Amino acid sequence: MENKMYILEPLFEKAEAYGKISYELYKLKTLNKSAAVVSTFVSRGSVVLALVIFMVFANIGLALLVGDLLGKLYLGFFCMAGFYVLLGGFIYFFMNNYIKRTVSNVIISEVLN
Question: Could you give the C-alpha distances from 65 to 5, 60, 74, 99, in angstroms and in order?
Fold first, then answer.
């Protein structure tokens, strides 16, 4: 009986080591995927932030131009606000599912690659 214990003991040690290494590998793979997803969103977020800042200044200039053409500066801002309300409604009602699907696909592709 003691011979069987001496034979099984290295097997249990190897199984334990395999379990620990597999767990560490799983943790490292998860960390790698998380870092890839976060870095992708940070890099894309910085580009989006730059575009948003550009759009803000472009819209202020356009609102001032339209206001100048209409005779009152505040009317240009009202026209721009109305345009963005219409654009937001269009995006919400007609492109909402497309945007959700696109964002979901990007997240899934980042996690699976």
Answer: 89, 9, 11, 32
Dist CA 14 CA 96 (whole Å): 53
Given a cut of 60, is residue 1 above it in pLDDT? no
Q: What is the mean pLDDT of residues 8-28?
A: 88
Q: How many domains does the chain have?
A: 1
Residue of 55, 52, 82, 54 lying closest to 67 (CA atoms)? 82
Take residue 88 and report the two structure tokens written for it: 């937001």
Percentage above 90 pLDDT, the chain? 46
84 close to 76: Cβ distance less than 8 angstroms? no
- Which residues 6+ apart lie within 8 Å of 23 measured at CB? none
Range of the domain at 23: 2-112
Structure tokens at 105: 């696909």
pLDDT at 35 over 60: yes
